[in-house]
UniProtKB/TrEMBL annotation:
Region of interest called Disordered, as start-end residue ranges on this chain: 1-46
A single MF term (Gene Ontology): siderophore uptake transmembrane transporter activity
Keywords: Cell outer membrane, Membrane, Receptor, Signal, TonB box, Transmembrane, Transmembrane beta strand, Transport
Gene3D superfamilies reported for this sequence: TonB-dependent receptor, beta-barrel domain, TonB-dependent receptor, plug domain
Presence of the UniProt keyword Signal in the record: yes
UniProt lineage: Bacteria, Pseudomonadati, Pseudomonadota, Alphaproteobacteria, Acetobacterales
Superkingdom of the source species: Bacteria
Membrane topology: Multi-pass membrane protein
Keyword Hydrolase listed: no
Family: Belongs to the TonB-dependent receptor family.
GO cellular component, one term: cell outer membrane
Annotated compartments: Cell outer membrane
Protein name: TonB-dependent receptor
Compositional bias (Low complexity): 31-44
Provenance organism: Gluconacetobacter aggeris
Length: 760
């Protein structure tokens, strides 16, 4: 099992292991066994195996289901298979595109699939309130624990993904076990040598291209194998002048050392340049269309060249999995990842009156406004005339170093697992106002309004016990202690502009109890009671005196019960949940001596989350599989009863899949219920958003050669938003004058792709 990944990934389901031949980790040829491949596969931990090329039984609900709950799951879990991803997701898509069909998940990209950073909501928990793992490694921005969907890997680099709607057990690690985990697995190398060229073209001048090389098992290196993939994406995007250029390198080497030990080496590098609109007003939508984003007008603050992000990221790890004797085994990953973001933006992008640079300097309160003059009560404008193209230049550079470690032993009637997660992340941030016309800072004496270094130290030791009082019953109590130390060294602190050197330590015990029962080989049930933890945001330090903030870590107590069934004909799962979210953080303006009114944070009450979720698929026969899933979700603030912003009251998905004789086709619809755009300081829901849906179609054909060990030629056509719905789906804040900004669904998109093997 990968470190930090739930037991949902520990083993194939009973039906899949009986009725299908899994791709990952199952040796299918006698020759491969003779060459020691079986030993290599057994030694490699799940997610780090060599992928065996073999025939699979496609005529089963378990294989075709877009989302399904594993029989080993001890909390509500939806797994999205690599097979589904490869046949349904446009090549430009990212992990947010792939998890969109899961129950209780809301996510949609306003610029097209994978063509801009996008946020994912799970049961109403927003990005920053749940984990994202890659091969079991937690990664996030340490300042607020959010993620960058276009930041690290591409769709072509990924295997299966799971959405765990719960805090996991004690061994589930990360900054935000608070609201669940999205666990992403990187692609594994195959056991036979292959070279593949791939490419696609589609709507909005979107192109992807790349090549993948698999070494196959190398006998002289003890049956080691590696995969290397290099690819790129470029697109104008659905929104006007919101283009993206991206290229990515990914590699994974699996090296068996002996019959008991396997090393895994993984590395990736990603380079991204994008122009990202912050949202548009309803007036702009009416005047310019639903696809309005940025402009090509150099006299406007939404000129695309004034609003650009250049982002470079990398991630690497060394993994060790070993049976050390006496029934003991260890699983360890030492890793690093980095995010380097250099951004330039204007101050009031897509604002109204102040959005244009004027040919004649305006008059304000009887005076001609110079560059950077004021407007309103106390706002600043940087748009007063030619040569005064004022905006902001920012940098955020961070690197994390960490380690996940687990030691395990199965005693028969009980299993023991001990381990820890350690990480240090150093984040340097700076920002200053500049004049685009000259490239100079606006205030030479004090050019920066933000200059700081943030350091986070995280430690999570844990112990997990699993008892088997009955052959089919597992009771798993666990305990973890989450510890986080935040430090800030700011010559110029954000918002205050004054120096600050401060640190604070947060900690919380996190007990858990999971009960799992196999009713029969096709049917399981589970019960979970577990605590989640979320350390306070770094924004709580952006005050003159952070000690004035009375903030304790936010916690959840999760109570969940569910069941799952899998057979060749059916998959079915359902659960009910209640989550008590305590120490909800809110803020208020207080008069701070020497500074005036400042934002001060404190804990106020909590939130109740509760609901019901289900998913099912039915194999009709003759290649057809029908599926549906849905959820009813509530999130209400204790005391006021107000809902949480951007938390849908329900979700649903359904469709039909056909696969036979190389032809694959699917028609899939996802529906999102009503939700509030924002909650006022008085606790009232505002800027309500109507339900919306998106209907997608995928058609593909795979041409197999006589030798099934050689990758096939594959053609695919993906149609996103077939009905061309262009509803407003997200509230995105306001302009400087307080006018609401919105995002709309991207219109209909066609994407055609091809992958071609290259022989030796």
């Amino acid at each position: 099992m990968m470190s930090g990944v739930s037991a949902a990934h520990a083993a194939p389901t009973a039906d899949v292991s009986r009725d299908t031949m899994q791709k990952k980790g199952r040796v299918t040829s006698g020759a491969a066994r003779k060459n020691g491949a079986a030993v290599a596969a057994a030694a490699a931990p799940k997610g780090e195996q060599i992928e065996t090329i073999g025939r699979t039984k496609v005529d089963s609900a378990a294989y075709q289901a877009p989302t399904k709950a594993p029989l080993t799951a001890f909390q509500p879990t939806s797994v999205i298979s690599q097979h589904f991803i490869e046949n349904n997701i446009p090549p430009s898509g990212s992990y947010d595109t792939m998890v969109a069909l899961s129950p209780s998940v809301m996510t949609i990209g306003s610029n097209g699939p994978g063509l801009a950073e996008n946020k994912v909501s799970v049961r109403g928990f927003s990005d920053g309130q749940y984990n994202v793992l890659f091969d079991g490694i937690p990664f996030a921005d340490g300042n607020n624990f959010t993620h960058h969907t276009t930041g690290y890997y591409t769709a072509h680099d990924l295997g299966e993904i799971s959405v765990d709607r719960g805090p996991g057990d004690a061994s589930t690690m990360g900054y935000a076990t608070f609201g669940g985990t999205i666990a992403v697995n990187g692609k594994a190398p195959t056991d036979r040598r292959a070279v593949e060229a791939y490419g696609s073209m589609g709507a909005w001048n979107t192109y992807t291209y790349g090549g993948e090389f698999n070494s196959g098992r190398m006998k002289k290196l003890n049956n080691a194998s590696f995969v290397f993939d290099a690819g790129g994406v470029q697109s104008d995007g659905y929104q006007t002048y919101a283009g993206q250029q991206r290229y990515n390198f990914y590699g994974k080497w699996v090296q068996p050392i002996n019959d008991h030990t396997t090393l895994t080496f993984m590395g990736m590098y990603n380079n991204l340049v994008q122009h990202a609109p912050p949202g548009v007003t309803t007036g702009e939508i009416a005047a310019y269309g639903s696809d309005y984003g940025l402009s090509n007008n150099p006299n406007s603050q939404n000129y695309f060249k004034y609003n650009v992000d250049t982002i470079q990221t990398d991630m690497a790890y060394i993994g060790l999995n070993s049976d050390i004797g006496g029934g003991w085994s260890i699983d360890n990953k030492a890793y690093t990842y980095a995010y380097y973001h250099h951004g330039h933006n204007e101050n009031d992008v897509n604002g109204t009156t102040q959005a244009q640079y004027l040919n004649v300097a305006p008059v304000w309160k009887g005076h001609v406004v110079a560059c950077g003059g004021t407007y309103g009560a106390n706002k600043m404008t940087y748009n007063s005339g030619p040569g005064c193209e004022y905006g902001q230049a920012m940098r955020q550079d961070y690197r994390a170093w960490g380690d996940t470690f687990a030691v395990k032993r199965d005693f028969g009637l009980a299993k023991l697992k001990l381990g820890f997660w350690l990480e240090h992340q150093g984040d340097t941030r700076q920002q200053g106002n500049i004049n685009w016309a000259t490239g100079a800072f606006t205030n030479q004496a004090a050019p920066l309004n933000r200059l700081m270094t943030l350091d986070n130290f995280s430690a999570q030791p844990y112990v997990q016990l699993t008892f088997r009082p009955l052959p089919n019953l597992e009771i798993s109590p666990g305990f973890k202690y989450a510890l986080m130390v935040r430090q800030i060294n700011a010559p110029v602190n954000q918002k205050t502009g004054t120096p600050l050197n401060y640190d604070q330590t947060y900690g919380a015990p996190m007990p858990s109890l999971n009960v799992h029962y196999m009713v029969n080989p096709n049917w399981s049930a589970y019960l979970q009671v577990a605590r989640g933890f979320l350390a306070p945001d770094a924004a709580y330090f952006y005050t003159p005196d952070p000690a004035a903030n009375k903030v304790s870590p936010e916690n959840t107590m999760n109570y969940q019960i569910g069941t799952a069934w899998q057979s060749r004909r059916f998959t079915l799962s359902g659960d009910v949940y209640y989550i008590n979210f305590s120490n909800f953080v809110t803020s208020a303006n207080q008069n701070v001596p020497g500074y005036g009114p400042m934002t001060v944070y404190y804990n106020q009450g909590g939130v109740d989350y509760y609901g019901i979720e289900g998913e099912a698929s039915y194999h009709l026969g003759a290649g057809f599989t029908l599926f549906a899933n849905g959820s009813l979700n509530q999130s209400k603030t204790q005391g006021t009863g107000a809902p949480i912003a951007n938390a849908p009251d329900s979700t649903a998905a359904g469709g039909l899949i056909y696969e036979r004789n190389g032809l694959y086709a699917s028609v899939i619809d996802k529906w999102i219920g009503a939700r509030a755009g924002v909650i006022s300081s008085a606790g009232k829901a505002m800027n309500g958003l109507d339900p919306f849906n998106q209907l997608d179609v995928s058609i593909g054909y795979t041409v197999h050669g006589k030798d099934h060990s050689v990758p096939p030629i594959k053609f695919q056509l993906s149609v996103t938003n077939l009905a061309d719905s262009k509803k407003i789906f997200a509230y995105s804040g306001t302009t400087a004058e307080g006018v609401a900004l919105w995002n709309t669904q991207p219109g209909r998109g066609f994407f055609g792709s091809i992958s071609v093997p290259i022989g030796f």
